[in-house]
Amino acid sequence: MAHVQDIEIRDTAARTAAAVEEAQDIHGEKMVLNMGPSHPATHGVLRIVLELDGEVITKADPDVGYLHRGDEKIAENMTYTQFIPYTDRLDYLAPLANNVAYALAVEKLLGIHDKLPPRCQYIRVMCAELARISSHLLGLGAFAMDTGAVTVFLLTFTEREKIYNLAEAASGARLTTSYTRIGGLMRDVPPNWCAMVRQFLKEFAVALAEAHTLLTRNRIWVDRLRDLGVVSKEMAIDYALSGPNLRGSGVNWDARKNQPYLCYKDLDFDVALGSVGDCYDRYLVRMEEMKQSMRILEQCVNKIPGGDENKSHEPVSIEDGKITLPSKTKVLSSMEELIHQFMLVTEGVNCPPGEVYFGHENPKGELGFYINSKGGGVPYRLKIRAPSFINLSILGELMPGTMISDVPVILGSLDFVMGESDR
Amino acid sequence: MSALESANKIKAKFGALISEPTEFRGEITVTVADAEKIFEVCAYAKSIGFNYLVDISSIDNYGEDPRWTLIYHLRNIDNGIEIILKTDVSEEKSELPSVLPVWRTSNWHEREIYDMMGIRFSGHPDLRRILMWEGYPYYPLRKDFPLAGKPSDLPGVAFTKISPMEGGPFVTIAGGNDSIAREPRVRTPESDAVEFNARVEARGDNKEARGQAFGPGPVDKK
Hints:
The complex is a heterodimer of chains A (423) and B (222). Chain A is mainly α and 423 residues long.
């Protein structure tokens, strides 16, 4: 019979409240501490100006923008296809998911987002889920390391390496994948790719179980995470948090379920929800999401149209000369295809006038693209709804009252990436 | 209740202020004729269930009047219904009420629009720049701002004075009189050469070694 042991958990929230009360008795001077922009716990170039009373934070002012490149301005000056490589550099821990999100937004503007070939949809879903696992693994590893558990970091980075190998096999690049095109994919996956994914899933299941044993019931880990950085349901909605941070507070919203796109309707998976909304809940939600992503991937490799080797030559792109590039042999032998190729390369995909918003369930949250088109191959305005930017805006309210040693824990549990936040 | 019904409900409440709902790719959009009323419309929208503000976007219709368009993407997180509110603001005014009391997430959205477009939000308690730095003179997402950027009066590097850490963790030249002289930002080729000459003379090295070790080497005395 399994032996169940209760872990006694010290009440961190009560401890902090007592510390605040104690500090209020002594009228000391408040100290301003500048954290970042180059600080290992800020995962990039986030700067937080903390006002401290002893060790208790009384005010926190996050300062973003150190990585601002003007991606939205750049997008107004190039064709839709040319912007795909820039999406790699938004959330650079999940470039494949960003590619999928951007391509779907432009396809929604074209009105073809539900007409994609089934094989393309399955490959895109697999890319997005691999990116989710990869992003959560890095988030978890860095989070654990900031909290003092360095072993997990080594474990998760070993697994991430395998996902990079998969991305390289599919797109040719490990990090800057640019795998999608408007209306499809750059190319089909290689014949042994599904076998590689199966092999990865087998190995990853073991690693994930090991991460669970290292952390989930680890007394130090639980002590530091429980009842810290509590985001209530109302607060999460009011601040428009998204992704695991929203679901960690118990809000049942997952764009894959609530606004299904691609082939998510045909796939069976559950949405992980937290109950309290503290750092520990957000951690558990991410762990469960990785498990669900494995489930999705398993179904995808078994159900993918055309099978592993695509012997039936299922297309991976829409066959429309005005949207996707024709094959090179046809371009060199036929007049019509030559014209199509020329027009697509020089002027871009001709989009209708109008405006659309598409929100994609990215690992970090809802990555949305608002596109305003006046017709032609260049967007008039492209606004990126960056989930990290919006998730960070809650910091000013979340931090006061916590101790200074809790800052890396709260930052790690929010799991943001500055490349996306600052755009 | 569908998105169209919600839009009609808002229209019934505010009458001529709200335009007929339009649909494009399944998205329902209504236009608010007077930007000054955007707060009331948003507050009412929240009261009928739109509790989640997805995003606020802004457009610069350069050369047209009114110049600015703001787009509010609202969502009811309980049933997934979404509607879009649009409103125009003229260039002379460039100001509209903040919706911060309705949704707290609009805090950073409005700061970003102010930073990028220069549209102000009345009633916002903390309207500072967010992505660009305080004191930057332009609004970079405006259509009349060139892609290559504009030169500004601010210095190009962040630090112009000697670091208070006196060298600290930075790369320094070996030797030197003191840590202040070694600090990389006070060093120039000339000052390096003077120091190098002094060291070579003190050591009495042969001439071949000169100029090979560090920096630009010795300068011949005239």
